[in-house]
Amino acid sequence: ENEALKAKTIHGGIGRVFSSESKADQSTAKGKGLTEAIIGIQANFVLTTKNAKGQQCYEKRDRVTAEIKNQEGHDCATEVRVKDNHDGSYKVSYFVKETGRCQAVVKVNEEEAGGSPFSVEVTPRQFRPVLSFGQQGSSPGMLSNPWGVAVNERDEIAVTEWDNHRVQVFSSDGTYLRSFGSKGDKQGELNRPYGIAFGKNKNIIVADCFNHRVQLFSEQGEYLSQFGSKGNLDHQLFHPLGLSVENDGNIIIADSNNKLIKMFSPKGHYLNKFGGEGSLTFPFHCIQYEKYLIVSDTDEHCIKVFDRNGIASDSSIFIAFHLQDNNSFISSESKADQSTAKGKGLTEAIIGIQANFVLTTKNAKGQQCYEKRDRVTAEIKNQEGHDCATEVRVKDNHDGSYKVSYFAKETGRCQAVVKVNEEEAGGSPFSVEVSPRQFRPVLSFGQHGSSPGMLNRPWGVAVNERDEIAVTEMRNRRVQVFSSDGTYLRSFGSKGDKQGEFDCPAGIAFDKNNNIIVVDGANHRVQLFSEQGEYLSQFGGKGNLDHQLFYPHGVSVENDGNIIIVDSENKLIKMFSPKGHYLNKFGGEGSLTFPLHCIQYEKYLIVSDRGEHCIKVFDGNGNFLYRFGKEGEGDGEFNKPQLLSVNKAGHLMVCDVGNDRVQVFDLSGKFMTKFGSKGDKKGEFNAPVSVAVLSDGRILVSDLGNHRIQIFE
């Protein structure tokens, strides 16, 4: 059981820290969607959160989630949504996408609800008629040759009428709501309207076929603008028929008699086109789905599929889709097979250290080119096809070059798959050999003293998003801030107990606003400062009440911005809001002996307990799960473990102060490696206390007894 709990730390998304009255095993789920579903039809059920007594209860911060999985454990539903009714009940809806037996896994605060998982039998869709509306005529609500139909996010239905030269809008049950348009060629008039769609701003877009134009109306039917006129120039149209809207809001028009598909901006500016003689005979409609453009060609009685550059697909099998807005149409000069990628990160990488390469987009002639709408992507996969890197990022240099960076998280051979507009770049996939990390010392700064830039027993260390390094000094009773190369920038604080003064400052962290949070240990409080060191506020005070502290040490900031304080002498971990309001706590006598630091990673809280020479792991509610380590000097053993951090590869680093080293573990507590030993030479330590990570993956360690900060690669 202990091993199973350990294994769970490796999985799951970023969690939150909070205490809730709701109990997952008491909570209940009811509804048809827990036992049966039909492909493509919304299935529903209701989850009710309950307390330990089985009574319905509501906690605003409860997290209710649902997953619909097939027998192989893959997602088998789309649009899984949870609606909070703010009374302890939650409406869960989803659309299943495959037949057979599925499982609905329902959780409250990461724990499965009573009865979960539920077995759901999914049946094929029968497309049974359930409603019709309209009859021949011209009165409101009556129809004469209805042609185009579109639906907005409120499920209002807009219909174009060929013979009545108007647009009518109905509710989802067919109730007439409003109409606009009449026969003519003036603004707001229509002559044989065909295609219709709702734009991203809820405006209604109408293909005014016999006027050879497209008109835009507000959702209430007020005329806004138009574009197009009869002709064969790029901005002109000749009997436009179908239209649709792509993800960026651009408008796709089937310019039928010109045998073209044309793209226009939301304001009607011409962008690009494809098709023409020999490619399309009489295109009627074009929609975008994923990376494809799908066209119905009336005269050839077929469906044609093109890539987003308008190049015909080799596929001979065509499928009808519901349009989803998840990809943008791109017509680009850039050619993937001509584009090139270069850099060390394409052939080698080191676990947890940033690897980089540069992708250069090129045209058909092999010349560097830049298109603002190009999409450059990269994936780093292992031999099993799973992601083997974190923080894969693409930075657009706006000149046709893109800096790609990532952090490898496992050794061995990986593949870097690099794409331009969904097509693989020249040379892709690239084979990358990933090596273990050596934790080589590359820089140290600070020496014993009290002048700016000098250090006297540096304790806590923290890094902000600009890679500025903040350090607390126990003996100088101040905070100093350095650049990532160790250059002194500024300092604040002095000895005392007034606002902005310190007595033995310990833990330090940057919050979500880049403010600096300092644990003022011997003053039994926490102080908040601006990033420039201006005093903002404080909380705490000596004592054992919930809002008080007694020699606090470590501090960290959780995902929601709440502050985690280790109230060491009270043997507690306490959570406070960003403004210092007490929220909750866990630990106490029998649970923790002398906690030093607590960090949140994924859905767990990881605590260093100096008094028991071990690391303890708790769930998000503060319930104990498992521990690892014991007193000693062997691998995985500790002598007064201090502060913690998780590196870019997702590995836990522990400052083993009494053994003068830093140890590295996976998140189940398995020892991986260590670095450092007793001494004052480069890479050696005299009481390493705190550890932090720079944006490029390098590791900072506060070397307390040597009065310096060391940086390791």
Automatic annotation (TrEMBL):
- Asked if the Swiss-Prot or TrEMBL record annotates the protein with the keyword Chaperone, the reply is no
Example of a GO biological process term: protein polyubiquitination
GO MF terms on file?
Answer: ubiquitin protein ligase activity; zinc ion binding
Superkingdom of this protein's organism: Eukaryota
Provide the gene name from the record: trim71
Q: Which PROSITE patterns match?
A: FILAMIN_REPEAT, NHL
Q: Which SMART domains match?
A: IG_FLMN
What is the protein name for this chain? E3 ubiquitin-protein ligase TRIM71
Keywords for this protein: Metal-binding, Repeat, Zinc, Zinc-finger
Q: What does the record list as coiled-coil region(s)?
A: none
> What ranges cover the Filamin repeats?
19-122, 331-434
Q: Which GO terms describe its cellular component?
A: cytoplasm
